[in-house]
Amino acid sequence: MAKKRELHEYSTDPAAQEMLKRAEELGISTAFTRADDMVPCNIGGAGMCCKQCGMGPCRLTKDGQTGVCGATIDTIQARNLTRAIAAGAAAHSDHGRDMAFLLKATANGEAEGYMIRDIAKLRIVASKYDIPIEGRSPEEIANDLADLYIAQFGQQNGEIAPIRRAPKKRQQLWRELGVVPRGIDREVVECLHRTHIGDDQDPEHILQHAIRTGLADGWGGSMIATDIADILFGTPAPVIGQANLGVIKENMVNVIVHGHEPSLSEMIVAATQDPEIIEYARKAGADGVNLSGICCTANEILMRQGIPAAGNFLHQELAILTGAVEAMVVDVQCIMQALVDLARNFHTQIITTSPKVRIKGATHIEFDEHKALTIAKEILKTAIDNFKNRDRSKVHIPDIKEDLIPGFSHEYINYMLGGSYRASFRPLNDAIMAGRIRGVAAIVGCNNPRSSQDYLHNKVVRELLKQDVLVVQTGCGAIAAAKLGLMLGEAGLEQVGPGLREICETVGIPPVLHMGSCVDNTRILTVLTQMVEEGGLGDDIDQIPAVGLAPEWMSEKALAIATYCVASGAYVIFGGASPISGMPDRVSDSDAVLRYISEGWEKLYGGKLEFVPDPDEMIRRTLEHIDKKRAALGLPEYDPSRFGRSGDARMLELEALPLEKKRQAIYGLAAD
Predict the structure, then answer these.
(1) Is residue 653 domain-resident?
(2) Is pTM beyond 0.90 here?
(3) Residue 441 belongs to what H/E stretch?
(4) How many other CB atoms are there within 10 angstroms of residue 132's CB atom?
(5) What is the pLDDT of residues 227-277, one digit of tens each?
């Protein structure tokens, strides 16, 4: 058994610490304490165990050892990693499939409560695929777009359509290397086939198909999901929101939505505003219904509706521990089975809604988009009926929450940089070329209870901001920064480098931009593509001074995201443990796969994947890569002393000076 950690070692979030102390007082286990009790298998954790057939499991712990079938450590690690990438790609892409069916049903008037909210985006996206838009109704256009998107999943030959939205040079590279996805489902299925006993046994060949599968997610299923969510629910623009457990309200019926499907959460948002539901809650003795989110569902409704986020992945148990949650409504992905047992200590109902997900002991109310609003009201009434069962003596809500401004879609970034008539990425490119912005870091991904919650995310964010690196975030990493208060325009600017501070003050943006849920990493790909198209930073994504980081990863989805980002030309750094690290003290040849996904992939794609557990080393490698890319583009060497004497802060300094000194400072004139 591992050593029991102190509260501050579990999480850097004071609200989480408060609730973990409460759990200890009540004798209730959480993911944090279970991580202490469960010692990971060092063989499986290193990717050195093969259980793909009934002759095993085979554990390779000695130099030169092979499995029963003769499989080497390199083959086994490549298979294990590729299978994980396939699972991650399947999860996100299946979400995209459901969104495509929802778009089809909405276009045909068969989805209760849904409508096309962003007609402009619908027309823009449709035109990218040569779907006729002039003289046609939004429903007609949406119907054709839905058919196109649905076809991408079952397509068997050719190229998936969204690939054409990548930089042209990148598309050509993929074609030359034979990794353009033919169909989303086909690549996932082939991954599983290739890694079956007795099939593909060349590690590099296996990993090439991992690339193809990752691309089917990033430039396929995930991009489809994001497009449709914007079309149906509105393209995000900045709104005011709040984050952390303090958003739970003692005088209201608290409903938390958790998972990843905006089709469910958006309809529950609509239902909470229905006068019938509001009156139903008041009759139950509450002031109303208070909705908040956990995980990526939180990001979906936060960035579009301003609905508060109760927290990220590791807050799901802590929210129930407040004793004030009537229902936690879940759909798919990242939902802990432990929730049901935990909820039995309180009155909280765990309500599953997806036909793909059941949890023993939970209440199941299956969500059907054709009766969406009706079912959303049923779910809320179930929660309201549970309000009377709340035990007030068990209620403990931390008075901790932070304001934030989420909603920075790539469309809004384009607008905020250039305005309504000159929307352009030119100012961003120019700021990087001049050196005001040293580079860009996309910090994404999960929480992992084996590290201190949010510590790695926020350590990396804070240090990169000091070095004039603009940070964009999605998923649980975004909520980590939100809880810290880094997603406000004025937040932490005294800790931001001088050049980046000038940009933030001039444009009026936070130093950390919230770009959505984990499926919305495709927004980042779109931003990078637009930066390439704008000019001045090379002709492909791999030339841009940018790095992707997942400091606290734990999900197979994160591995799929990393793979499609690498294939797109990005350097990706993961914190925590490597799933294919091997044990060099016992196996001398166990790092071949690690070398290949770094050095091998970099030679082919210009991007690479590395696992770096130390945050200081993550920061060092990030800055080194950014500076290397700046030098290759012939950009000025990063020099923070050149900037920081303009913007709002400088004007306030000048305003405080006596008149004669003000004239000297502004015009260089001698005093009269």
Answers:
(1) no
(2) yes
(3) strand 439-443
(4) 11
(5) 999 999 999 999 999 999 999 999 999 999 999 999 999 999 999 999 999
The answer to whether residues 274 and 249 belong to one domain is yes
Residues 84 and 143 in one domain: yes
Q: Hey, what are 620's tokens?
A: 């060092």
Strand duo 363-364 + 349-352: pairing:
parallel
Q: What's the Cα-to-Cα distance from 504 to each of 68, 437, 649, rounded to whole Å?
A: 59, 10, 11
Statement to judge: residues 104 and 13 lie in one domain: no
254, 194: one domain? no
**Same domain, yes or no, for 259 and 219?**
no
Is the separation of the CB atoms in 539 and 444 below 8 Å? no
Backbone angles phi, psi at 239, to 5 degrees: -135, 170
Question: Dihedral sign, CA of 638, 639, 640, 644?
Answer: negative
pLDDT, position 488: 86
* Cβ atoms of residues 545 and 567 within 8 Å: no
The gap between the terminal CA atoms of the chain, to the nearest Å, is 77
The CATH number of whichever domain residue 197 belongs to comes to 1.20.1270.30
Among the candidates 207, 233, 259, a domain finishes at 233
Same-domain pairing of 114 and 149: yes
Directed axis angle between helix 556-567 and helix 521-534, to 10°? 10
Q: Which residues contact residue 64 at a Cβ distance below 8 angstroms, ignoring those fewer than 6 apart?
A: 589
pLDDT tens-digit readout, 446-464: 999 999 999 999 999 999 9
Residues ≥6 apart with Cβ < 8 Å to 468: 435, 436, 437, 438, 496, 497, 498, 499, 500, 638, 640, 643
Distances (CA, A) of 651 to 436, 491, 515: 18, 19, 30
Give the residues across from 49 on adjacent strands.
Answer: 59
Q: Where are the beta strands (DSSP E) in 261-348?
A: 289-294, 309-311, 325-330
Note whether 221 and 291 are same-domain residues: no
Q: Are residues 214 and 264 both part of a single domain?
A: no
Q: Provide the 10 A C-beta neighbour count for residue 143.
A: 18
Q: Is residue 187 part of a domain?
A: yes
What CATH code is carried by the domain that includes residue 293?
Answer: 3.40.50.2030
Instruction: Look up residue 610 and give its two tokens.
Output: 């590395």
Measured CA to CA, the distance from residue 672 to residue 592 in angstroms comes to 73
Number of domains making up the chain: 4
Query: Of the candidates 511, 457, 483, which has an alpha carbon nearest to the alpha carbon of residue 243?
Result: 483
- 377 vs 365, 385, 613, CA distance in Å? 11, 12, 45
> For residue 335, is it within any domain?
yes
Phi, psi angle pair for 466, to nearest 5°: -60, -25
Residue 588 lies in a domain: no
Residue 504: give the domain boundaries: 405-575+612-641
Quick check: 588 pLDDT over 50? no
Q: What is the DSSP letter of 352?
A: E
